[in-house]
Amino acid sequence: MMTVKIGYLLPTREQVMRGDHGTEGLLTLARYAADLGFDSLWAGDSLLARPRHDPITILAAVATAVPDVQVGTAVLLPMLRNPVVLAQQLATVDQLSNGRLVIGAGIAADTPAIRNEFEAAGVPFEKRVGRLLEGFQLMRALWTGEPVEWEGRWTIDTPAVLAPIPVQPGGPPVWLAAGVKPGIERAARHFDGWFPIGPDPETFGRRNDYYRECAEDADRATTALYLTVCVNDDGAAADAAINDYLAEYYGAPPEVMRRVMACFGGSAEAVMAWIKDYIDAGAEHLVLRLVGAHKDTLATLASHRHVLG
């Protein structure tokens, strides 16, 4: 029987929104979640659109502070970074974690704030899918530890060797965030996993079936899922808290955000039943973004984990 993994998204964005730019609180939450039995710890990515701690740097700290659990990006925008530099950074984190790194990656939504973010980083927003694919091709070549020459969007004229190489042969697994059919196909054909943010369990299940059909090696492909939850015995209050959270986090109407991402608020029993619907539909690794008091919610979810089997 498949063992489902449950991960916790560190509140790097939320902490900055509260005016706290420190890191010790994040490391404390990471240790707390790991002690409760959470399987993985994650950090999101943004430069200017939704400012927060750099995910690669914070995961390097988490990897050394918290043993045994996986660490990952949920999700990284690799197009904002030079892939040669990024390959070295990710290989270093994989070494620090002794092979526990997972790279969740995405192409970014098309919004004015994100377009401005790309422009500020000196990266064209258009053709970002091609940059994503070629960037990972180049990183994987560098991660072999063999001499690499490259001619494309980036150029390595003279054969060069990158160090360190990752602990994981071929590099850390890459899970692609995607919701539309072409993105699901890219996840299946070019990467190691599919990492959507929704939608409802039934639609997710159909899309996962399609992902499995497209996967070149279905036995190795991973189906992950990013969920937003709020635990409160008052379901209406929990739902309202999620709406307030989404409006502040994204600066967009919550009903718009709920169309593309899976969110649920209610009692611990109701939340776990909702999560189990996704597991029954094929989710293997769930990453939870929490709304509300994180320590209390982590403890409550951990005490109800047996419901998931």
Structure description:
The protein is α/β, with parallel strands linked by helices. The chain has a single domain (5-308), classed as Luciferase-like domain (TIM Barrel, Alpha-Beta Barrel). It is built from twelve helices and eleven strands. The protein has helices at 12-17, 24-35, 55-65, 83-96, 112-120, 128-142, 181-190, 201-214, 235-250, 254-258, 268-280, 294-303; strands at residues 5-9, 40-43, 70-76, 101-105, 148-151, 155-160, 174-176, 193-194, 222-231, 263-266, 285-290. The strands form two sheets. The chain has an eight-stranded parallel beta barrel, surrounded by seven helices. Strands 5-6 form a two-stranded antiparallel sheet. A hairpin with a 3-residue loop joins strand 5 and strand 6. The radius of gyration is 19 Å and the shape is globular. The protein starts with a strand and ends in a 6-residue tail after the last helix.
What's a quick, concise take on this entry?
This protein is of the alpha/beta class.
Provide tags for this entry.
309 residues, alpha/beta, TIM Barrel, 8-stranded parallel barrel, two-stranded antiparallel ribbon, 12 helices, 11 strands, 44% helix
Topology:
Elements (H helix, E strand, L loop, with lengths): L4 E5 L2 H6 L6 H12 L4 E4 L11 H11 L4 E7 L6 H14 L4 E5 L6 H9 L7 H15 L5 E4 L3 E6 L13 E3 L4 H10 L2 E2 L6 H14 L7 E10 L3 H16 L3 H5 L4 E4 L1 H13 L4 E6 L3 H10 L6
Parallel strand pairs: 1-2, 1-11, 2-3, 3-4, 4-7, 7-8, 8-9, 9-10, 9-11
Antiparallel strand pairs: 5-6
